[in-house]
Amino acid sequence: MQTPLETISVSLRRERERAGLSLSELAKRAGIAKSTLSQLEAGSGNPSVETLWALGVALDVPFSRLVEPPEPRVRVIRSGEGPGVASEQASFVGTLLSSCPPSARRDIYVISLEPGSPRVAEPHMPGTVEHLTVAAGRLRAGPAGDPVDLAVGDYLAFPGDVSHVYEALDPGSWAVLVMEHT
């Protein structure tokens, strides 16, 4: 079984080559240093959510395509064991539970957040819609200019192709996030 960093390394190289981009060109499009991209493709470094999202946008692929290992026919992810990626901006961890098969366009995550700095997300691919259901705690989430306060059991759908935020209002907050790509 591959480590999360090995999966990212293999996936980045595969998607960069599929797109026909050099290391320099992809780094430029993603707004990251070429040395950072080179390290990630070599299986070293510690990529943040922001770096991987920028690379996904530059490659025009969902975030999940960069972090998810090949999927077995039956898969169980125990609580706390999924491939989590932390944010540089806030106490926020996104754990991919299921990515979209080629015939569909959705990814499923568990996100955990702690009070403090909000996680500000850059726009995703055009047409992306985020579906969020709070499982524990309270969150403030949604478009950056119009976030909504949510409690356990609340559901929110909002455009993911605009700048948006996630902020924990209570310790131990977490939610299920489904990203729908059109």
UniProtKB/TrEMBL annotation:
UniProt keyword Membrane, yes or no = no
- The residue ranges of the HTH cro/C1-type domain are 12-66
Q: Please give the Gene3D superfamilies that the UniProt record associates with this protein.
A: Jelly Rolls, lambda repressor-like DNA-binding domains
Per UniProt, the keywords (alphabetical) are: DNA-binding
Indicate yes or no for the key word DNA-binding. Answer: yes
What would be one Gene Ontology cellular-component term for the protein? Answer: cytosol
Instruction: State any single GO MF term.
Output: DNA binding
> Per its record, how is this protein called by name?
Transcriptional regulator, XRE family with cupin sensor
Source organism per UniProt: Haloechinothrix alba
